[in-house]
# Entry
Amino acid sequence: MKKKTALVTGASRGIGNSIKESLLNEQIEVISPSRSELDLSSSESINNFLTNLSTSIDILVNNAGILKVGRHNELSAVDFHEILQINVVAPFEIISGVVESMKQRKFGRIVNISSIWGQISREGRSLYSSSKAGLDALTKSFALEFASYNVLINSVAPGYVDTELITKYNTNLELEKIKKTIPMQRFAKKNEISDLVKFLCLEDNSYITGQIITIDGGFVCK
# Structure
């Protein structure tokens, strides 16, 4: 069989790096551009990157994203445009750039990394929640467009994950308080997210498409 090639954005650390490693372990070639190679805040950069791709993409994982936190009077339209560009418009542009060759080959797997904050929200998350809800809507609509070509697209929506970022922005006391709000009383491990993403990317997934799969230890069920 032809060796599969995956494009994974935001793979330098955290969940993205774990996804990259899990796909490499399946003998999948992984393209993981740096920000200097692919700047998601720039449509011109995205177009240049896609134009210069030398290989067809079989698997796409849109993992990169940004978080902006603040109340309505602490954020601006500029902030909103930036988070929408990186979290929604960029995935749209990349999907649009690689999906035609997937459709021609009658195979493609696309996973958008969303968030529980696209389904629920909290103070200060207005822009982030809006962007992730938009990404989920994009997933559902594209699933209808691509299904007949055997191009399957899903969103994975993690809750709290044990990454460098969560420990960077919370004290140990705050981390313990957060854990108590999760029914399973712990954060997700990075490999628990990447293992789910890997399954959705492989041929073993032959029928799941258009789904928002929440992986959060039961947090949104409360």
Notes: Strands lie at 5-8, 29-31, 59-62, 108-113, 151-158, 212-215. The chain has one domain: 5-160+190-214.
